[in-house]
Specification:
Blueprint lengths: L9 E2 L2 E2 L25 H7 L6 H13 L3 H12 L5 E8 L5 E2 L9 H15 L3 E9 H4 L2 H17 L8 H7 L14 H7 L12 H16 L1 E2 L12 H7 L1 E2 L1 H14 L4 E6 L9 E6 L18 E3 L8 H4 L15 E3 L8 E6 L10 E8 L2 E11 L2 E7 L3 E9 L2 E4 L4 E3 L5 E3 L9 E5 L1 E3 L14 E2 L5 E8 L2 E9 L5 E5 L6 E5 L8 E5 L2 E4 L1
Parallel strand pairs: 6-7
Antiparallel strand pairs: 1-2, 3-4, 3-5, 8-9, 8-10, 10-11, 12-15, 13-14, 13-16, 14-15, 16-17, 16-18, 18-19, 20-25, 21-22, 23-24, 23-26, 26-27, 27-28
Length: about 525
């Protein structure tokens, strides 16, 4: 049975070795009759999900089979075999009871106005969250002409651009060939971006050719699509055509545009992302250019517990692939098209945690959370074995909480802990010394970088006249220690601080304040 890794196929009993040599054992005038095309098992499984669109996909395969083009046939098989999970996803907003809300951030002039409108909706509908309101699957709508043009142009640049010649077919398939970046509507971007950057390599020589050319292209993309915080509240990814009109977007949009530009010109490009920063709210995605070994690193502006890289191919060991249909897992981790590249950015640690709390019902997995946007957010997973879970490649200098995911809710599985810079684990479960001391709290959030605007967020300080609530993590939940109105630029708290995690929040605010330890009358922020 043929697999995706094969680079040859049988034609009239002769093997056509065409994958990398480009040569044929049949003469152009051969009268040999080609056998009908029989797709590999994984391709057939995908075709069975195409419904009325099956004919469109089969026409792509037949097109390359009949032309005896093994490279493009294998490329088409790769795309179709891995296509079922890929789609355009429209994201909307729902209230606390699941009711859909009529809210579009683009109806407002800027982020501040949109945020004010959202806060008014929250007063009426409770906490507001994302919801998938529409999904258009590629396997059901991708046309013959669309796929053939993408494959032809992708193979052309891979085989003709000097910087692409050493790239293995495996990396070509995942990082040049794909026709989409995330969950945006499909559009034609290869030809326009091939034309736009046709002269990008002119005059560029030396060892840093790739870095120089891609750097020029990245600067140009930032001129084409500028970052706008308004798009934080417009969670549906834009298509290439939409960005050409709006000329603004969030990090995901800009990353997609950069990815289009690189792939259209033969550079292996991927989107790396962290689902939740570990030292601030929000998440981030960014574009990277891979070397011939499939490695890349674009640097980090903030502390990250995990860095993942999107792939078009299905990852067999991903949580989404192994969990089983009946097992519910956190949304960020349910995908099947990402790999863990944390160690390409930092020296991480494997951490084994004893799960001291029992889950409300049996569950095969545990998760590690970071504190982000006023809540614990799952960032990685592990199988539970003998009451323990080993979490691989975790970022350091970060506070974590182990949890279960039961009935679609997070349940603490053990005490929070700090993974220190040197790899040491400090479990935050209180201590035998329950001495109460007075501590002065002056800061609720330290200066933090903003990867989108490249402008630091200022330090958030205690403000006289504002009401604050001080929490401590105790008995698997945030427990109120004190509520008080600040009379000066500091709060004085009388607490048993040893080995405990605290959080000081301005009442009525957005809860973007950071968690901290109290040691030697100092706040150590995380």
């Amino acid at each position: 049975m043929k697999t995706q890794k094969e680079t040859c196929f049988i034609v009239a009993g002769l093997v056509l070795l065409m994958a990398f040599s480009g040569c044929s054992l049949l003469s152009p005038t051969s009268e040999t009759i080609l056998p009908s095309y029989a797709p590999p098992q994984d391709v057939e499984a995908a075709l069975e999900q195409a419904g009325d669109n099956r004919d469109q996909l089969e026409a792509v395969l037949t097109h390359y089979h009949d032309r005896r083009d093994s490279v493009k046939l294998k490329a088409a098989e790769f795309l179709i075999a891995n296509m079922p999970d890929h789609s355009f996803v429209q994201i909307g907003w729902v209230g606390a009871n699941g009711e859909e809300l009529d809210f579009d951030a683009l109806d407002y002039a800027n982020y501040e106005e949109a945020l004010t409108a959202m806060e008014q909706l929250e007063k009426q509908h409770g906490e507001i969250n994302y919801k998938k309101t529409q999904q258009v699957k590629d396997i059901e709508v991708a046309t013959t002409n669309y796929l053939i043009e993408n494959i032809d142009l992708a193979v052309e640049v891979w085989q003709t651009k000097p910087w692409a010649k050493d790239l293995p077919f495996e990396y070509f398939c995942d990082y040049i060939l794909p026709y989409r970046g995330s969950n945006e509507p499909l559009s034609d971007w290869r030809k326009p971006l091939m034309t736009r950057y046709l002269d990008a390599a002119d005059g560029v020589k030396g060892d840093d050719t790739v870095k120089t050319i891609t750097g020029k292209m990245q600067k140009d993309v930032h001129k084409v699509v500028r970052f706008s915080s308004l798009y934080y509240m417009h969670p549906t990814d834009q298509s290439f055509d939409e960005m050409c009109v709006s000329r603004t977007g969030r990090c995901e949009d800009i990353t997609n545009m950069m990815t289009y530009a690189m792939r259209a010109n033969g550079f292996a490009s991927a989107s790396d992302y962290t689902p939740a920063w570990a030292d601030r709210d929000n998440n981030h995605a960014w574009q990277v250019v891979l070397d011939a070994d499939g490695k890349a690193n674009a640097g980090l502006t903030n502390r990250a517990a995990k860095i993942y890289r999107k792939t078009f191919s299905t990852q067999k060991d991903s949580l989404g692939n192994i969990k089983g249909e009946d097992v519910k897992v956190p949304r960020w981790l349910s995908g099947r098209h990402y790999i863990d590249v944390t160690d390409e950015y930092m020296t991480p640690s494997d951490v084994t945690i004893a799960l001291t709390n029992e889950p409300n019902e049996p569950t095969p997995f545990a998760y590690l959370c970071v504190f982000n946007g006023g809540r614990w957010t799952p960032i990685h997973w592990a199988k539970i074995q003998n009451g323990q879970a080993t979490f691989t490649k975790m970022g350091r200098d970060i506070a974590y909480l182990p949890v279960y995911y039961v009935q679609e809710q997070l349940q603490p599985a053990a005490a929070p802990f700090i993974l220190h810079k040197d790899g040491r684990v400090q479990t935050l479960n209180g201590g035998t010394d329950e001495t109460t001391d007075k501590f002065e709290i002056t800061t609720t959030k330290p200066v933090t970088a903003d990867a989108d605007t490249l402008v630091d967020f200022p330090r958030m300080v205690v403000k006289p006249g504002k009401a604050y609530e001080l929490f401590v993590w105790d008995d698997n939940k945030w427990t109120t220690v004190a509520k008080t109105t600040a009379k000066s630029p500091s709060l004085v708290a009388e607490v048993a601080a040893g080995n405990r995690l605290f959080w000081c929040v301005e009442q009525g605010g957005r809860k973007l304040e950071r968690i901290f330890l109290l040691e030697d009358n100092q706040q150590i922020m995380y």
